[in-house]
Design goal:
This protein is an alpha/beta fold. It folds into 2 domains: about 190 residues, 3-Layer(aba) Sandwich (D-Maltodextrin-Binding Protein, domain 2); about 90 residues, D-Maltodextrin-Binding Protein, domain 2 (3-Layer(aba) Sandwich). The chain contains 14 helices and 10 strands. Helix 2 crosses helix 11 and helix 10 packs across helix 11. The longest helix is centred in the first third of the chain and has 25 residues. This is ABC transporter, substrate-binding protein, aliphatic sulfonates family.
């Protein structure tokens, strides 16, 4: 009898616990939507989709439907964007170069690549002073070259040097951003640099530099859209809507190309003819086709060059980094 009572009490308690657990689970509510969404704004080289989206207030209008304030932040430097993502002051990063993304992920910055932004290998070139002392990549040996380390420009240089059995140890590498590097080569402080458009055309127009080698065949020139992993996990629908709006800005630009050119020229303080001339060098397809393979190839190369720790599993890194599940289905 005593055992029967104990068994009955046990079964009753178990039933109550299961019922409470089920009720608790059914009562769980999704995380509250944020009061604001923060995204980086990068208008250069000629980031037509972002320029158009900002001008037309596409993101602002979309998220205002839920009472969410959308804020653009003018942060062109990749390192600053990544710091902002890590500190949670930025949710989305637009036009982030792929090398910076790989190195950030390898260093523990928890981010996701959710879309391509652009590819423009034709819009990047290694340039030198036109005094005749450098006519081939091999002639860079012993010379001073300026560029921003840890970027696609850095990888381009390493790959170009490797073709002639040289490394960065065979020259003097000065770390500076592209604007500073363009000034440095124009004033004779360095012998070479690697510049992206539209800075490339602007600097060549001075007559103080000449092209030596474009990025074609060396790097993809890929930039991506990245998001904080935590934001993506807690607000997946907002991430999908973000990409839907971005795609809308790409589609609008294609349909209204002349107006898109005009808006971009004004924003970037360029002649509209210059924007039209540069446009064919850029591909704004948002798909992630070939992105994983591109990132794996680059990450393996960077690891071989000592820029990523040897104990990092490259395949796992890239698999965890790229997430196509947020892309628009139509």
């Amino acid at each position: 009898m005593f055992r029967s009572k104990l068994l009955l009490i046990f079964l009753l308690c178990t039933t109550l616990l299961i019922g409470c657990a089920t009720q608790s689970s059914s009562n769980q509510t999704p995380p509250d939507k944020p009061k604001e969404i923060n995204a980086s704004y990068v208008s250069r080289p000629i980031n037509i989709p972002s320029v158009v989206a900002k001008e037309k207030k596409m993101f602002e209008e979309e998220f205002a439907k839920d009472g969410i304030e959308f804020k653009w932040h003018d942060i062109p430097a990749p390192s600053n964007q990544l710091e902002a993502l890590a500190s949670k002051s930025l949710d989305f990063s637009n036009s982030l170069n792929y090398v910076s993304v790989i190195l950030a992920k390898a260093s523990g910055n928890d981010i996701k690549v959710i879309s391509s932004y652009s590819r423009f290998p034709k819009g990047i070139s290694l340039v030198v002073t036109p005094n005749g002392s450098i006519s081939t990549i091999a002639d860079l040996k012993g010379k001073k070259i300026a560029l921003q380390k840890g970027t696609m420009l850095h990888e381009m240089l390493i790959r170009a040097l490797a073709e002639v059995n040289l490394t960065t140890q065979d020259l003097e590498l000065v770390n500076m951003d592209s604007n500073a590097a363009a000034t440095a080569i124009a004033t004779g402080q360095v012998d070479a640099t690697i510049l992206p458009e539209p800075l490339l055309s602007k600097t060549i127009a001075t007559g103080k530099v000449k092209k030596l080698r474009t990025a074609e065949g060396l790097i993809s020139g890929l930039t991506v859209i990245a998001v904080r992993s935590e934001f993506a996990q807690t607000q997946p629908e907002l991430v999908k809507r973000f990409l839907k709006v971005h795609k809308a800005s790409v589609d609008w630009s294609k349909t209204n190309l002349e107006e898109a050119f005009s808006i971009t020229a004004t924003q970037n303080q360029l002649d509209i003819k210059g924007v039209k001339n540069l446009y064919p060098a850029f591909n704004f397809d948002i798909s992630l086709n070939d992105v994983k393979s591109d990132l794996q190839e680059s990450a393996s190369f960077l690891q071989k060059e000592g820029m990523i720790r040897p104990d990092v599993d490259i395949n796992k890194l890239v698999e965890d980094l790229v997430d196509p599940s947020y892309l628009p289905t139509t």
